[in-house]
């Protein structure tokens, strides 16, 4: 194999910031990962990250959008959602008590994924969840 050749496959999708686009993002993820034992976990992660982009950033406002990237290799699946920014704060993982009505989404994603990385730029935020394919599906190993 040539040193500049990658065995990873990468897909991208840009969606308008409408609530119905969350189901499109889920379906797109499920279609790409249909043979993977990680498909359900990935679908749930993409659903949560897409909904957060629409609800909490400029992605859900006039002519807003969000972008999904999905990278698959023999070692990992990386799911990224990039929003249009405009939120007063960056996304953060919080552990909420049982009575909380909001703020559980990224916490849930962090339990399902093996690693979550949040990157902030001038144009928005990218949240990437990584699933390591060498470990059992369904979250962190015990």
TrEMBL record:
<keyword id="KW-0418">Kinase</keyword>
<dbReference type="InterPro" id="IPR036890">
    <property type="entry name" value="HATPase_C_sf"/>
</dbReference>
<dbReference type="InterPro" id="IPR003594">
    <property type="entry name" value="HATPase_dom"/>
</dbReference>
<keyword id="KW-0808">Transferase</keyword>
<protein>
    <submittedName>
        <fullName>ATP-binding protein</fullName>
    </submittedName>
</protein>
<dbReference type="InterPro" id="IPR050267">
    <property type="entry name" value="Anti-sigma-factor_SerPK"/>
</dbReference>
<keyword id="KW-0067">ATP-binding</keyword>
<keyword id="KW-0723">Serine/threonine-protein kinase</keyword>
<dbReference type="Pfam" id="PF13581">
    <property type="entry name" value="HATPase_c_2"/>
</dbReference>
<feature type="domain" description="Histidine kinase/HSP90-like ATPase">
    <location>
        <begin position="19"/>
        <end position="129"/>
    </location>
</feature>
<keyword id="KW-0547">Nucleotide-binding</keyword>
<dbReference type="GO" id="GO:0005524">
    <property type="term" value="F:ATP binding"/>
</dbReference>
């Amino acid at each position: 194999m040539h040193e500049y050749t990658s065995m990873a496959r990468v897909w991208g999708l840009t969606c308008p910031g409408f609530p119905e686009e969350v189901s499109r993002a889920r379906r797109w993820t499920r279609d790409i990962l249909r043979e993977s034992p990680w498909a359900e976990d990935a679908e749930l992660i993409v659903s949560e990250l897409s909904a957060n982009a629409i609800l909490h950033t400029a992605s859900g406002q006039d002519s807003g959008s969000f972008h999904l990237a999905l990278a698959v290799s023999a070692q990992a699946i990386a799911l990224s959602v990039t929003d249009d920014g405009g939120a007063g704060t960056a996304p953060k993982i919080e552990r909420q008590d049982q009575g909380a009505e909001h703020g559980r989404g990224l916490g849930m994603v962090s339990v399902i994924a093996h690693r979550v990385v949040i990157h902030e730029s001038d144009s928005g935020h990218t949240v990437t969840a990584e699933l390591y394919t060498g470990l059992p599906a369904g979250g962190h190993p015990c």
